[in-house]
Amino acid sequence: MKSISFSRGLPSLVTLCSSLFVNTTIVRSEDALPQVRPDVVYGHKDGMALTMDVFEPSTNRKGIGLLFMVSGGWVSTWMPSEQMAAFFKPLSDEGYTIIAVRHGSSPKYNIPEIVEDVRKALAHVDKQADAWQIDRTKLGVFGFSAGGHLSLMLGTTANDKQPGPKIAAVAAVFPPTDLAPYKTPGNPLMEQFPALKFDSKRNDEFSPLRQVSGPDAPTLLVHGDKDELVPISHSQNIKEAFSKESVPCELVVIEGAAHGFNAEGNRVMFESMRDWFKAHLVGTEK
């Protein structure tokens, strides 16, 4: 089977929309798509609005919120909410409210600034939880590649702070977990991904692997064993770190896959995410 194509070495959201869930779910015209709150403003920077789209399930609402990190190469793209609604439909059908978070994009902003954005987004979701009929104790986060990195940044740091919004479950697909290897002198990835251009003294602060601690959210990792851009060791190492801290963690390996999966790999990935959130969010008590 043909693998998903990639832009700048990282998955395009448009490609994922057309390839990931369309390969696993047939969306018929009579099927009810989620209700959408488009372009919700959660903050401002440099005179610009930071926005998120909120996709609320039409039926079977469970009061669970899943933040999706819209990020590839730490670039956050916009697409029509109608397309994203189809992308999220399998999760919406489970009764989840999906919040698609857009952040300030590279190359203008670097990783420390981007992480600040997604933390603001989490705080805004927590503030709006009652209005959006979400249980603030049942917030999950997921993303792919750079979006997986940002998901893990929330999952490994949000629960350390008292008080403040918490993350109850994470799903991260082929995520960079240690930024230091990408920031060695002369590494061409520094030019390919300018979000990495920040003070190297802060590498550990923005590397999820270095932030693992006991309060962290249960985490699902999905990774291809032939990934050269983000080697599977990134997921293996953080899984080991979670285990040492007794944080629930599972690594699903897609054999033969690089930085992107074919239709069967996408099916396994989606079903693993669905089952993980069901176990750690639906199955928890308030």
Explained architecture:
With 286 residues, this protein is of the alpha/beta class. It has one domain: 3-Layer(aba) Sandwich (Rossmann fold). Helix content is 30%, strand content 21%. The protein has seven helices and ten strands. The strands form two sheets. The chain has an eight-stranded mixed beta sheet, sandwiched between helices. A two-stranded antiparallel sheet has the order 1-2. A hairpin with a 2-residue loop joins strand 1 and strand 2. The longest helix has 20 residues. It is globular. The N terminus is likely disordered.
Count of extended strands: 10
CATH topology description: Rossmann fold
> What value does the average pLDDT take?
88
CATH superfamily: Alpha/Beta hydrolase fold, catalytic domain
Distance from first to last alpha carbon: 43 Å
- Provide a count of the helices: 7
Order of helices and strands: EEHEEEHEHEHEHEHEH
Query: Main β-sheet: number of strands, strand sense, barrel status?
Result: 8 strands, mixed
What's this, in brief?
It is built from seven helices and ten strands. The chain has helices at residues 13-21, 81-92, 111-128, 146-157, 189-192, 233-244, 263-282; strands at residues 6-7, 10-11, 35-45, 48-56, 64-70, 96-102, 139-144, 169-173, 219-224, 249-254.
Features:
alpha/beta; eight-stranded mixed sheet; about 30% helix; Rossmann fold; about 290 residues; single chain
